Amino acid sequence: MPAYSFTLPTAGGQDFVSDEHLPLIVYFYPKDNTPGCTTEGHDFNARLAQFEALGYTVAGISRDSVKSHQNFCAKQGFQFELLSDKDETVCKLFDVIKLKKLYGKESLGIERSTFVLDKNGEIAHEWRKVKVAGHAQEVLDTLSQ
């Protein structure tokens, strides 16, 4: 079993088993229906056919509930899976839960990050502390080389 193997519920309520979707682009984002996360989702969605043509599956992960993901997907029209990691199991596996500061308050939250898992389920590429602008294109450019 690959080191980065996981199973999480999708917005549709089915189990998403990572090993069945390799190679896989998985991006972690802080929260549904927020400006940066919405933009990032649209950027990946706009390039989805290109990622799929290269053989990759795309999935987004946050701590939001399945119901929240259902609403977010329906509202935004995303054509890829959003996965619910309410207990942070997969977030911890990828070490994306970090201490964040916002308006002087500290809290633990998801650090925007993207990982590409190869056909063996190992990390082939990773981006941490992601800035949304241009990121999905950067991932596509990297995988197109």
UniProtKB/TrEMBL annotation:
One cellular-component annotation, GO: cytoplasm
Per its record, how is this protein called by name? thioredoxin-dependent peroxiredoxin
Q: Pfam families per the record?
A: AhpC-TSA (PF00578)
Under the heading CDD domains, the entry gives: PRX_BCP
The enzyme class is: oxidoreductase
Q: Which family does it belong to?
A: Belongs to the peroxiredoxin family. BCP/PrxQ subfamily.
Tell me the Gene Ontology biological-process terms attached to this UniProt entry: cell redox homeostasis; cellular response to oxidative stress
Location of the Thioredoxin domain: 1-145
GO molecular function ontology, one term from the record: thioredoxin peroxidase activity
User: Which species is listed as the source?
Assistant: Uruburuella suis
The alphabetized UniProt keywords are: Antioxidant, Disulfide bond, Oxidoreductase, Peroxidase, Redox-active center
Catalytic activity entry: a hydroperoxide + [thioredoxin]-dithiol = an alcohol + [thioredoxin]-disulfide + H2O
Which residues act catalytically here? 37 (cysteine sulfenic acid (-soh) intermediate)
| Complex and partners | Monomer.
Q: Quote the function comment for this protein.
A: Thiol-specific peroxidase that catalyzes the reduction of hydrogen peroxide and organic hydroperoxides to water and alcohols, respectively. Plays a role in cell protection against oxidative stress by detoxifying peroxides and as sensor of hydrogen peroxide-mediated signaling events.
Enzyme Commission number(s) of this protein: 1.11.1.24
